[in-house]
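User: As part of a screening pipeline, I want to sanity-check one entry by hand. Below is the sequence and the SMILES for pyridoxal-5'-phosphate. Please return the complex as structure tokens so I can compare it with the automated output.
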Amino acid sequence: MDAHRRLLAESDSDIFSHIRAEEQRQTDGLELIPSENYTYPEVLAALGSVLTNKYSERYPGRRYYGGQEHTDAIETIARERAKALFRAEHANVQPLSGSPMNQAVYFAFLQPGDTILAMDLSHGGHLTHGAPVSHMGKVFNFVRYKTEADGSIDFDKMRALALEHRPRMVLAGHSSYPRDLDYAAFQRIADEVEALSFADVSHVGGLIAADCLANPLDAGFDVMTTTTHKSLRGPRGGLILCKAEHAKAIDASVFPGLQGGPHMNQVTASAITFRKAATEEFRAYSQQVLVNARVLADELSNAGAQLITGGTNNHLMVIDTIRSFGLDGRRAEQVLDRIGITTNKQVIPDDPLPPLRPSGVRLGTPACTTRGMKEGDMRLLAGWMDEALRSPDDESLLDRLGEQVRAHCRQFPVPGIGAE
Ligand SMILES: *Cc1c(COP(=O)(O)O)cnc(C)c1O
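Assistant: Here is the complex for your manual check:
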């Protein structure tokens, strides 16, 4: 055990025992929540470093407080790496997480009451895209486009909506949509109604960094945001990329508009992540994420599961568990939890059921791929899930499946969780 851990174990055994238990949970369980991942040991080291002690309000070379020679260097490296990774003209690495990152973008360009054209929430849009329960939903006027049954977006319908409502911003982005987006088509509509184009690629940021999915900035988007902790595999945080002409507005909106001091330990960890994301290893990892998702989706479909849009070509999929197994999403999530497979209940397009007991579950492959799982593991996994969901009340079957999942997972070490 390293010195810091030993100190923690001795000084606060209550908390330390929970950390140990969470490590065991992460080791034993199969993580299929598509927004989760296991970060690098180097990131854990940076997060736990003394960079957490430093106040660094404002930007490199223009800070409010002294003592910034190292934070300036680190933030400059983080920005340059982010720009190179995503072919962006400007990067802001300070957003504390995904939600404040998107708020900063809205407030950089819009006035309260302005209209934003965004994806319908049950069709894949995110909470921060103006859900009625979110503050942003109260501040701005969100108008919704939907997806077709095959998962495509009908851009003629979307154009008609844009011409009718004249949004100031067109938002492309999602957290439960299993397909790539045609960003050029979004950009054409934004151009026609003279709206800003904004892509929130939080879920797929890593896949875009690895050039496995399309990059909205290549299609001329004004702004792109991504979280750093999902497919990018970094610390919890947010990243804003934009054209040079928007740099001032974005930076002022993050600080002092929305946030105070950035978390410099997180910025340091992001810099490490961006360098890793530019490597061949990361590209191979990202390709495997996509292959694993396709195999998992194919195997589940072959076993009779109904997938929203019929499958996937990104890292995630949504199973209609009502139509597939006669179980609502909450029950399906519980049954899978019972055998050590973590998923999340998920609304499906125009879901007739309520959000806490919706019609589906969502799964994704970034985390299990980080542990080294491949196509053969996906086939096993699909089989276990199918068996459990078909016999949700067979306790002895669930016990046996749970044992199999645990035994399988233990063959795949979790980065950052070492033997002691
Ligand atoms: C996860 C996510 C966010 C929010 O990120 P948090 O870090 O949880 O605040 C925003 N947008 C999309 C599309 C996401 O998937």
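Points to compare against the pipeline: The pocket of pyridoxal-5'-phosphate is lined by residues 35, 97-99, 102, 126, 128, 173, 175, 200, 202-203, 227 (CB under 6 Å). Residues 331 and 371 are 27 Å apart (CA to CA).
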